[in-house]
Amino acid sequence: MMPYEVVIGLEVHVELNTKSKVFCGCSTHFDAPSNTNVCPICLGMPGVLPVMNRAVVESAVAVGLALDSTVSKWSKMDRKNYFYPDLAKNYQVSQYDLPLCHGGSIQIEVDGVNKTVGITRVHIEEDTARNVHTIAGEGNGPAQSGVDFNRSGVPLLEIVSEPDIRSAQEAYAYLAALKQILQYLEVSDCNMEEGSLRAEANISIRPVGELKFGVKTEVKNVASFSGTQKAIEFEVARQREILESGGTVLQETRGWDAARAITVSQRSKESAHDYRYFPEPDLVPIALDAAFVERIRASMPELPQARHARFKAQYGLNAYDATVLTSTKAMADYFETTVGAGAPAKQAANWIMGDLQALLADSKSDLAACKVSASDLAAMIALIEHGTISGKIAKELLPAMFETGKAPKKLVEEKGLVQISDSGAIETAVRDAIEANAGPVADFRAGKKQAMGFLVGQVMKATQGKANPKLVNEILTRELSKG
Ligand SMILES: [Zn+2]
């Protein structure tokens, strides 16, 4: 079998979360009833005049800066002409030869290997309306097709990568890294199910050593990153089979059929000039001065990679912990607030990544809705540090805090969870345990050190888990050595 090299470029469309659409004042709210967020501009009526939404340019510049792109001082909007029922004007306002941002890169890591993927461009465009098809017999009468214009004119960024990606895993890592940056910037909710983030992959293969690119196909309609990875894997295998049997790969657009896990031919690819791009005469060019760009740069949060590096350096976290804690801005902020409230970094990391994450996952919830504030988590860790409660009790306390939102101290009082650090009470429990367990005691004295764990367990059981484990160990060791 001839070795082939896989060449992938990704085009990502991301819906920006501005309050209003890109060229009119209509709301971008996703759940509104069909055709309620519309006006003559986004319905594509003749004679109307669009106006660029300043917030869209601000978000686009922030994304460009985050990707190390060059932000153009001067760019313009263009008309991309084509007919489709969801495009009332018969053209989409986009950017052609002078995009807002060009160049740049994203760092990815696959199996411990770091790689830089180049960014070709970032440009602004408007989303189209949405065709809605109903099936006959759903209480709607016969099958119907309609157009919902709520999405028409929702601002989009198109982010195009260089053909630097060499495998489906690298494509996945690129998408994950890009999504993380967009979420840190808070410019989009990146919800793939609702279509806020859509990825298209341009895929070709070529014999290893060949410099010319092979014929590429474009895969669309993928609703998740793992779907993108599977679609690429399928498409690479399909192209390889064609080439190895002496056939030719056709340049075409293929859709991903998730149910059947295959790509299906949709249409042969039209070339760029078919769109008859020309400058949009109704919008002024976008002229940015340095002060505007610098103001955006100054308002940007610390980005995931920088924060990851700082978490390792400042808090002494290992790479894994830093990766988990910076996976979302919300989690990184939560961690830093917990540490800021006095919790040691490693303990805060362990509780957040372990028990708290598990509680969030079980309740299908997230930190934004979490009743345990970072300061309450820090207060709980302080109770352990001061010996008021044991780590074991804390494992029961945290779910109660999660459920009720009550402060840990209050819950400890209510539930009588205070740790027993009175050595007299513990000594009694230790002597009882020694008396009641002659076998394990004899085992321990005969050198079976693991019998100690059993005896500690008995003391903890007798004290309902409230005995200070450090004291239990000390007293038990002392008492056993007496024999
Ligand atoms: Zn409108």
Which structural class matches the secondary elements?
Answer: alpha+beta
Low-confidence stretches: none
Gyration radius, rounded: 30 Å
Percent range for β-strand residues: 15-25%
Bound molecule kinds, no repeats: zinc ion
Q: Mean of the pLDDT scores?
A: 93
Description:
It is a single chain. By secondary structure, the protein is α+β, with helices and mostly antiparallel strands. It has three domains: 4-292, no CATH class; 302-415, no CATH class; 423-482, Orthogonal Bundle (Arc Repressor Mutant, subunit A). Helices cover 40% and strands 20% of the residues. It has helices at 54-66, 168-185, 225-244, 290-299, 304-315, 319-325, 329-340, 345-362, 374-385, 391-404, 408-415, 423-436, 438-445, 451-462, 469-482; strands at 4-15, 70-71, 74-75, 78-81, 91-94, 101-102, 105-110, 113-126, 130-134, 144-148, 155-161, 197-207, 217-222, 252-257, 262-268, 278-279, 286-287. The strands form four sheets. Strands 1, 2, 6, 7, 8, 11, 12, 13, 14 and 15 form a ten-stranded mixed beta sheet that branches. Strands 5-4-16 form a three-stranded antiparallel beta sheet, with no helix packed on it. Strand 13, helix 3 and strand 14 form a beta-alpha-beta unit. The radius of gyration is 30 Å and the shape is elongated. 34% of the residues are buried. The model has no long low-confidence stretch (mean pLDDT 93). Zinc ion is lined by residues 21, 24, 26, 38-39, 41-42, 153.
